[in-house]
Structures are given as C-alpha cells and as structure tokens.
Specification:
The complex is a heterodimer of chains A (about 425) and B (about 325). Chain A has 12 helices and 7 strands. Chain A has about 425 residues and is α/β, with parallel strands linked by helices. Classes of the chains: A alpha/beta (about 425), B alpha/beta (about 325).
Chain lengths: ~425, ~325
C-alpha cells in the first residue's frame, strides 16, 4: 500500500475516498425507466447557418435536434422539406433493411452462417445519412450501418453471399459475416476492431482536401467505441486540419451489456466531446428520419464549404441483441425497446407520410409484401451459390492471396504444402 | 474436488483469489454485471461488490493502463481483454510500460498485473476472434506468458499468475473452454466432465509458472505444444500409433527448458506445434533452443506444424487450423527421416 494511505494519522480528518462505478437505472426483472432522459419537444432547436463559428454553437451538444413530433408532423427550422418521393424512398430503404435483418438472423439460427448483427431500431441513422450524402462521398462504417449499402442500392445478394462465405462472396470467404467491403459503393472494409475507421475517415477527407476534390468522408462509431483512443485521434486530426468529414457517434445506449454511462455518458453527452476540439457537436434524434437527414445535410454542406468537420451524436436505441452471440435479457429490462421515448424510426416516418397524405396503410402493406418477396428472391439466388460450409468452400488456395500484392515465396510454398496435404489427407474434401 | 470446465476453473480461481486477498480486483468489458461474454467472471460482482468486479469502457489501452496504475498503488488487478485479437490498442501499455516498469525504475515501481484473454480459433470467429498473438509478447522482456490446456492447470496457473509480482499475460484458448477439443471439428466435442483434468479442487492451490507437464509419456519423438494443440497432438499420437512424448508447456516464458531437453535427448526427434502464424512464431524459438541444446542427440530435422502465414480465414478455418492429421504426418516424417 502507498505510504500515505488511509491509516496515515495525518489524513485522519479527510473523508475516505470512494470508487464510483456507474450503473444503469434498470436491470432485468424491472420495468424500463427512461423518465430522466428529458426528451425535448420537436422543432425547438434553432438551425444555425453552416458558416457559424464553432464558439457560437456550444449549446448544440446539449440540445436534441428533432423534426417529427408525436403526431407525425414535421416542425421547426430543421425540417428538410423533402419531396414526398424521397420520403417514400427512405421508408422503403428502412423497411428493406429491417426485412433483410430479420431474414438473415433466421439464416444464422438455421446454421446457414456463423454470425449476424441486426440494426433494428437504428435504420434511420444509416438510411437517412446515406441519402443526405452524395453518392460519391466515402463511408467508413462500423458494423451496424448496413442501411448505408441498402440506401446506396447495393444488391442484397452481394451482402448475402458475403454472409454465407459462399463461392460468390466478394471477400473470398475470408471475413466474418457482415464485415462487408464494397469499394464500388464507397463503403470501406469493416474492421471488426473498434474505432479504427474513424481516424481513417479523417485521413481520407484530408486527402480529398489535399487533392482539391469535392468529396467528403463520413465515419461511424458507437457510444461504447468513443472510449477507444482512435476516436481521440479522429477528433484531433479532424480539428487540426479542418478535414471535410462527418464523425458520427451512434449512441444506441448499449455496448453489448454495458450501458452508455460506462462509455462516459453518465454526466454529459457524446456530442459534447466535440467542444474540446473546437468542432461543432450536434445531438440528433436518431429515430427521426427527417432530423437525421437535416443534421447530416448541415454537416455535409459545412464540410463541403471548407468549414471543417462536425460531430453528430445520433441518439437512438439498440432494439436488437448486440449480435447473434448475445442475449440481452441477461442484462437489460425486456420492455426497454417498447418504451423507448423516441419510438420506432420506421413507424415514425410512416406516420408522417400518412399525416401529409402521401401514404396509406394499404400501400404500406403492399410495400412490405413486395420487399419480403424481394428479399426472398435475393436469398434464393444467394443460397444457390451455397451457404457456410455447404458445399464446403472449394478454393482454399485463395486464402494465401492478397496478403501482399505479390505472393511472397514462403506463402507460395505454404500454399503448395496445404494443397498437397489436402489431397493426401482428405480426398473426399473436408477434414484436416 | 469438483468437475469443472475451463470457464468454471477460471471463475473458481478468481473467486479464491478475491476471497483470499482484498487487493485482488477484476475489470474489463462486460466483466461486471454480465459476468463476461464467456462467463468467466459470472457471479463475482454479486459476491464481491461492484467496485471489485466491474465493467470498463471499450478501451483496451485504458484497461491495461488503469491496471498498471492500480498495481503501482499496491493492488493486484486482474483484467480481461475480451478477445486477444483486441489486445493491440493495449500493446504500448504492455510493452513500453508494464514490461519495463521494474527495470526502468530499478525496482522502485512494479506492475503486478494479470491480463486474461481468450485466444485461438476454431469457432468461425474470422480474423478478429481467432488470433493467437502469444509470440508478440514472448518477444518482450519483462512479460510472463501463460497458456493452460485444461481446467486443473487453468486454476492453479491463474492463481500463481495473480500472485506473481510481475505482469502476466494469461491466454485462455477459447476452443477448449468447454471440452478438450482435439481438432476433429466434425465430431461432437467431448465435455470436460469426461476428462480427468476436469477434477479441480475448490480450494486454493497454485502451479508453478515455468514448469511443463508431460501430457503423454513416449520414447520415439518429443512433441512440444501448448493450449488447444496439446489435445490435437495427443489425438495425433493415438491415431498414428507413434510413441510420442507430448509436452504441454503451460507457460512459454518462463520456459521449462529442462523438461524439453531431457525429453529430446531421450527421443532424438522433435516436432513443435502451435496454432499461431508460422513465421517468427513461438515455435521458432523452441526449434532454436532444441537445436542449441540437443543438436548431437537429434536423429532428424525438427518439424514445425503451425497455422499458415495468413490472417485467419473465416470459411477456410479448417484448412488453416493445424489439425491432428497434419501433426500426424509430421510425426511420421521425423520418424522416417
């Protein structure tokens, strides 16, 4: 023990120090309690001009930008006033993302693949953001932004092939399911390690600025990942070089079993992280398609006009388990999602479209059916190329490719050894 | 005595350590309320309170740094890095700090920390849930590296690691958490309860760090392995009928060189096996030591059986994993040489 510990008589009058460990309000067996969140009404936050100096924006990290009110009306200065067709497109992408998730988790449960991660409840984040950005802007996602690919029109069969590690998998069976990489869709290779992509997004944006380009970058991390040093690197470099980048923090309340208080959100917001770096930090209702769209558009315009980076905290709720390996009933109340005060992003946009008489239940039902049909067709196509291990993948030699551009001699040798061993030991195929 | 799997043995070691010594505490991602994603710390928060077993931010460098600071104060923190694939943000704190603190302060400060981390593949975890990075740490002076292969060893070695006054990295091969996986992935896993080394005392005991175990006595060839590969090598010996002596290292550093040298001098042949990537793997060190100490006793070149020099490929996991047939071929090769 240190010499000046509690038994030191000189310290007698001092209070004993206590170690603080944050705890969430509710655990399993109790009812969800979101009474302390203090969700403000929609439409109340002013929308500053995109060239407003950061020092005049320091109230924003503590506000919550919301557009859709409880009745589905778009209110206030952040209403992006999108044409109805764009709203319907947004609804379609969100519904498709949700249907895709539901079908793929079932495939995992049926043993057709090893792993899956849903984004249920968070569809507005990726979908609205992809729609607010230009198609040529570069995306550095984490593992829960499949909606970016859906909104950019990446065929689902491509994603399914990757999930199944089948013979059409563009990643040659190398990556864990859902760790997509889609250069043609401006979607960076998902790492699996946390936060690494955020400073890389800044670097890409710096390169775009250096090159006199017009494209910007956007990166995503979760509330939990903000604790990684990489996020500090991202904020520092984005600030120092005024990089044209949007740094998104998806605060979905849970990092596997730990609530956002463990990530440092107990007494402040994640948007407020931005202030220490002199970056604007906007806190946005992440389940409000219009608010997400508008805030992203604001940050994109700011970046594109050489006013630098913005931090967006997308305030949402992880309705699903962390992954197919996780069981949230062990650590959070079962009724949290049902009681989440910001509702379901799909339902809220649907309600809005109906309120402005651009949608109705019959069309909605028809759309849901059409999308289910579409996912079925894509799934059939993907499964025709195989599912994980069925048939066993037939190009094991490919595992030695792409370690380097040119295969080094030792890998050429190892590939020969591996193939010779396979022939010798397993003429029928599978076992090592 | 109780029957325990590896998870229960690790949990029991933690329980015993925390009950014996108030200076022992544990933390890491999902370690507290949830009890760890592999359940190794289940029940500890309830039993010892939320300040002795708690969740941390997702910041591996921060976890290790905080542990070092606590160690400097005089506590004995045991931290969990959820997957050893996620240890790299902590490498600076481990390599530049924990490993060198005693040396650079001439013993004025020390870091008596233990870092537990699941490692190894065979669970379709892809390249971010399958790695075996032990050789990165055996290359660093000042770190102790332990890898148990069974529940009995896991508990005794973990308790010894916690009591050790220097930093210990304690790898837990996740593929053998629930049973002695022998590489036959297409067969049902035998649970630990059917294995003699699942008999684990519920009370305190330690096993010395740096003392290997002869997992199988034999005369014709020495097989050096650790972790999951011990069971793969035992299967290979059974299936080929080769009279192999299988050494389970239990700790890589300190290394029980005496047991290795004695065995190789007896058998005259040696096969080194690990799941990790081949080049500059720990096997290279073992081969070198055997060559230095047993050259004139060797009847054949030493063989290495390892993972390939690629990241762990998801769909080709079983072509990457050095299974019993690959080990068996190596056994025959050194015998026929």
């Amino acid at each position: 023990m240190a010499k000046n510990g509690p038994k030191d008589p000189k310290n007698k009058k001092l209070p004993r120090l206590e170690l603080h460990v944050p705890e969430p309000k509710c655990r399993p067996g109790k009812h969800a309690d979101f009474s302390g969140l203090g969700i403000p009404p929609a439409g109340k936050v002013a929308r500053p001009a995109i060239d407003t100096p950061e020092k005049d924006l320091r109230h924003l990290p503590y506000e919550l930008i919301r557009v859709l009110d409880d009745k589905g009306k778009a209110v206030g200065p952040w209403d992006p006033k999108l044409p109805a067709q764009q709203l319907r497109d947004g609804l379609r992408h969100m519904l498709l993302t949700r249907e895709f998730d539901e079908r793929m988790i079932k495939q995992q449960r049926q043993g057709k693949t090893s792993f899956y991660m849903k984004c249920t409840g968070e569809e507005a984040v990726a979908v609205a953001q992809a729609m607010a950005l230009d198609d040529k802007d570069m995306l550095f996602p984490s593992y829960r932004q499949q909606g970016l690919l859906v909104a950019r029109g990446c065929p689902l069969v491509r994603l399914m092939n990757q999930i199944f590690s089948n013979k059409e998998d563009n990643l040659k069976g190398r990556q864990l399911p859902i760790m997509y990489s889609e250069p043609d869709y401006g979607f960076f290779s998902i790492s699996g390690n946390l936060g690494t992509q955020l400073p890389q997004a800044v670097g890409w944006a710096m390169a775009s600025a250096y090159s006199g380009d017009t494209r910007i970058a956007a990166g995503w991390v979760g509330d939990g990942t903000t604790a990684e040093a990489d996020v500090h690197y991202a904020l520092t470099f984005a600030s120092v070089y005024q990089a044209p980048v949007i740094l998104n923090i998806v605060n979905n309340q849970w990092a596997i079993s730990t609530f956002q208080g463990i990530a440092g959100g107990e007494h402040t917001t994640f948007a407020a992280r931005a202030m220490g770096y002199a970056l604007p930090g906007l806190r946005v209702d992440g389940n409000d398609f219009l608010a997400v769209y508008a805030a992203t558009k604001w940050a994109a315009e700011r970046a594109r006009s050489n006013f630098g980076a913005t931090v967006l905290e997308l305030y949402t709720y992880r309705a699903a388990a962390h992954s197919s390996s996780d069981d949230p009933s062990a650590y959070r109340p079962a009724d949290e999602w049902k009681n989440w005060p910001l509702g379901d992003p799909v339902e809220r946009l649907k309600q809005h479209l109906i309120a402005i008489k651009e949608w109705d239940q019959a069309r909605h039902t028809a759309l849901v059916e059409e999308l289910a049909q579409h996912v079925s067709e894509q799934l059939k196509q993907a499964a025709s190329h195989g599912t994980l291990g069925n048939p066993p993948p037939n190009d094991p030699g490919s595992m030695f490719e792409d370690v380097l551009k040119e295969m080094p001699g030792r890998l050429v040798m190892q590939r020969e050894q591996m193939l010779a061993f396979r022939k010798l030991a397993q003429p029928s195929g599978e076992e090592n | 005595m109780a029957r325990m799997n590896m998870i229960q043995a690790v949990n029991s070691a933690m329980d015993v350590a925390m009950a014996r010594d108030p200076k022992v505490l544990t933390f890491g991602q999902d370690v507290g309320y949830f009890g760890g994603v592999f359940r190794c710390t289940a029940g500890l928060q309830k039993k010892y309170g939320k300040t002795r077993c708690f969740d941390t931010p997702i910041a591996e460098g921060g976890i290790v740094a905080a542990a070092i600071g606590m160690g400097v104060y005089g506590l004995r923190p045991v931290v969990e890095i959820q997957f050893s694939d996620y240890i790299y943000p902590a490498v600076d704190q481990l390599v530049s700090e924990a490993a060198r603190l005693r040396y650079r302060s001439a013993g004025g400060f020390t870091a008596p920390i233990t870092l537990r981390t699941p490692s190894g593949g065979g669970i379709f975890g892809g390249q971010t849930h399958s790695q075996s990075p032990e050789a990165i740490f055996t290359h660093v002076c000042g770190l102790t590296t332990v890898i148990p292969s069974n529940p009995y060893d896991a508990k005794g070695l973990l308790l010894a690691s916690i009591e050790d006054d220097d930093p210990v990295i304690f790898f837990e091969p996740k593929r053998i958490y629930n049973g002695p996986f022998d590489g036959h992935h297409d067969r049902p896993l035998t649970p630990w309860s059917k294995h003699e080394l699942s008999e684990v005392p519920e009370e305190y005991y330690t096993l010395p760090l740096g003392k290997a175990r002869i997992a199988r006595a034999g005369e014709k060839v020495t097989v050096i392995a650790y972790g999951t590969m011990v069971h793969v090598c035992l299967a290979a010996a059974e299936e080929t009928g080769v009279d192999a002596e299988v050494i389970d290292l239990r700790s890589l550093l300190p290394l029980d060189l005496d047991t290795i040298v004695e065995s190789v001098k007896k058998t005259g042949r040696c096969v080194v096996v690990h799941e990790a990537t081949r080049t500059c793997g720990y096997g290279a060190e073992l081969v070198s030591l055997v060559q230095e100490h047993c050259f004139y006793n060797l009847e054949a070149p030493i063989e290495r059986v390892t993972g390939w020099d690629t990241p762990y490929p998801h769909a080709y996991e079983w072509d990457y994993f050095p299974g019993p047939k690959r080990v068996g071929l190596a056994l025959k090769k050194v015998l026929e040489a």
